[in-house]
Amino acid sequence: MSDYPLDLATELEPVGETRLKSSAGEAYWNFTSAFGGWALALGYSAVQKASPQTGALASAVASFLKPLPESGLMIDVRALREGRRTNFMRAEFASEDTPDTPVFTADYVFSDMKMKELDYTCDFPDVKAPEDAARLPDNPGPKFLSRYEQRVALGQPFSAQERPHSAFWVRDAADRPWDAKALLALSDTPMPRTFFVDPTPRFGSTVQYDLHVMCGADDLAACGSDYLLVEASSDRVFSGRFSQVTRIWSREKRLLAISNQLAFY
Q1: 5-111: CATH homologous superfamily?
Q2: Is 174 in contact with 195 (CB distance < 8 Å)?
Q3: Distance between CA 120 and CA 257 in Å, rounded?
Q4: If pLDDT is split at 50, 70 and 90, which confidence band does 2 have?
Q5: 7 exposure class (CB count in 10 Å sphere: 0-12, 13-18, 19+)
Q6: Where are the alpha helices (DSSP H) in the chain?
Q7: Residue 45's pLDDT is what?
């Protein structure tokens, strides 16, 4: 285990064969709940600790049922299916005070990639280079923002854009190298799409989330701790809810992962 903030915040205490405990939500605190990206990374760490996976992370699907507490979080891990090449694992979170009431669930798929001849990628957005992009202040704001250095490559928060499209170059503030766990945490960093359709701040809460990984461990390792581009947009902001699609790119314009969310505001 390293001393990087993300790794320290995803340390787990075994309290049973497949049950673990976390008390580190405060380190990645949002306004009224622990940061969703931290929860995704924590669930991944719980699976790897309770039932180490040899396959690479292929996807994650999560439901945010209730606010995540700062401490006293119990995590149960179980296998949904273990196949010859692909495993389906679940991590279910509950507060220590109410262990029978889930607050968050995440299903992870692990499977090694098979190289085949077809290869298509959508277009890389037209954005500023990280060296030319203004740094986003991390204060004032929720505590988790201080864990990242973000530079605004496209879009302007708290403005009425014709399309809620944004892109930020993001790196770990402690220079932590990229891997699957860090990718999960990164995927939930985009601001709510409501911030890009009206100057008035309207905060959102993620209800459901998914991530599809389109790279291997070697691809992430090649990125080191360099900036990754986190591009986000929405197909609909309407009646107290919004969709969000996120694409994560390397500096070399390689599409590493795609995420979708439904949030309420």
Answers
A1: Hotdog Thioesterase (3.10.129.10)
A2: no
A3: 14
A4: confident
A5: middle
A6: 5-9, 36-50, 180-186, 217-222
A7: 98
Q: Enumerate the β-bridge partners of residue 100.
A: none
Strand partners for 206: 263
Spatial distance between the Cα atoms of 137 and 140, rounded to a whole number of angstroms:
7
User: In the structure encoding, which two tokens stand for residue 229, read together?
Assistant: 């581009």
Amino acid occupying residue 240? G
Residue 26 corresponds to which amino acid? E
How many C-beta atoms lie closer than 10 Å to residue 137's C-beta? Answer: 9
Half-sphere exposure of 163 (CA within 13 A, CB side): 10
Q: Please state whether the predicted TM-score (pTM) of the whole model is above 0.85.
A: yes
Q: Token pair of 182, please?
A: 């860090």
Residue 1 pLDDT exceeds 60: no
CB 245 within 8 A of CB 232: yes
Alpha-carbon distance of 73 to 205, in angstroms, equals: 20
Cα separation, 73 vs 90, in Å, equals: 16
Domain 130-264 fold is Porin (2.40.160)
Q: Which helix (H) or strand (E) holds 64?
A: strand 57-64
**Domain residue extents for the chain:** 5-111, 130-264
Q: How many CB atoms lie within 10 A of CB 159?
A: 12
**Tokens (6 digits) for 53:** 């996976």
Report pLDDT digits (tens) over 205-255.
Answer: 999 999 999 999 999 999 999 999 999 999 999 999 999 999 999 999 999
C-beta neighbour count of 136 within 10 angstroms: 17
- What average pLDDT does range 18-38 have in this prediction? 92
